Amino acid sequence: MTQRILEPGEIQALDSTAIPRIRLPERATHFAARAARLRKLAEHNPIGGYVRLMAVLVDAQHEALMGLSAQMPAQGAIAAAQQHSMPILPALSGERDPQWRVVLRGLAERVETAGAVTPALASVLGALRAMSDAQLDAQADALFAQRYAEVVPSTAPFIMAALQVVWTDLASRLDINNVPYMDEPGTCPVCGVPPVASIVRVGGAYQGYRYTQCSLCGTEAHVVRVKCTNCDSTKGIAYHGIDAGEGSDAANATHAALKAESCDECHTYRKIGYQEKDFDFEPLADDLASLTLDLLMGDAGYRRASPNPLLWPELPNAQ
Question: For the chain, which domains are there?
Answer without folding.
Answer: 23-176 (3.90.1670.10), 182-318 (3.90.1670.10)
